[in-house]
Request: fold
Amino acid sequence: MEKIDLIMKNFIAELGYEPANAMFARINSGKKLRSKLLLKIAGESEQSLKICAIIELIHLASLLHDDVIDDADTRRGSPSINASFGTKNAVMLGDILYSKGFYELSKFPHEIAGEISGAVSKLSVGEMMDVDLSAKFNEDKSAYETMIYYKTAVLIEAAAAVGAMLAGLEVSNFKIYGKNLGLAFQIIDDILDVTQDAATLGKPNFSDFKEGKTTLPYIYLYESLSEVDKEKLKSLFKKDLSETERGWVRAKMNETGAIKKSIEAAKNLGEQAIKSVEKFNVDGLESIVKSMIDREF
Ligand code: FPP
Ligand code: MG
Reply:
C-alpha cells in the first residue's frame, strides 16, 4: 500500500504546484479496499500498482467533493480538507486528483480506461441519487439499493473487473464479486454509523439520519414499527439527536431486529460475492469479504 501512496504523491508532484502537494500530504489515503482487491486478483506489477494509484486518486477526489456536499468536518479521524482549507480548495484539489487520475488512465488500453471511466460517471450519478433521496424520508429499499450500487459498488466492481483483465481471468464473474462486495461494504458502513461511537469511526456517528439518509437499518426499522413509533421516527428525521433519542433509535433497532437484518443482508451479499469467484481459487478474496464485514470502522 505504501508503493501506491508513493505513486499518487509523485503523480501530484509532477504537476509542479507546491500548495497542491502540501494539501495532498494532509489526506489520509485510508484502507484502500479497491487496491487490495485489484492486487489480490492481478498480482503486483508496475501496471497494476499504477492502476491502483489512479483508482485511489479518483476515490479520494470523490470523497473531497462528498465532504463538501455533506458539509463534513471530519474524515478518517482528522479534519476534512474542506474544514482545514475551505470548500473552494477542497473542490479544486478534488478536480486536480480526478483530472490527473484520468490523464494517467488515458495511457492505458481502452478496455481498462473504459471500465474505470464508465464507473466514475455512474459514481457521480450515484452521489446525485443520494442527495435526491435525502430530500425526504425514503422508505423504498430498491431506491436505496440502486443508489448504493452507483455511489459505492460501481468503483469496487470496476477494480475487480480491471484486476481480472490484467490477470486474463473471466471478467463477468469478478464483476459480480466486486458488485456484491461493494453493496455489502456500504450496508456495513451504514450500520456502523448507528452502532459505533465517533472515536472508533473517525467521524461523527448518527450522521446519516441527520443528513437525511434513510439507510437500510432505518428502512428495516420503519417497516416493523407501530404507527405511533413510525411517526416518532419521522419526527427525528434530519435532526441532531439527543442522547435519549439516539438511545431510543438504537433500542428500537435491536428490538425489531433491524440491525440484525441489515447484517444478514450484508453477509448474504458477501456470500454471493465469494460464490461467484470460487472456481478461480484466487487467494485472499474470501478474507477480503470477511474482514470487510467484521470491521469496526
Ligand atoms: C461517500 O458516501 C461518497 C461516495 C462513495 C461517492 C462520492 C461521489 C461523488 C462526490 C461524485 C464523483 C466525484 C468525482 C470527483 C469523481 P457517504 O457520504 O455515504 O460516506 P461517508 O460517510 O464516508 O462520507
Ligand atoms: Mg459523506
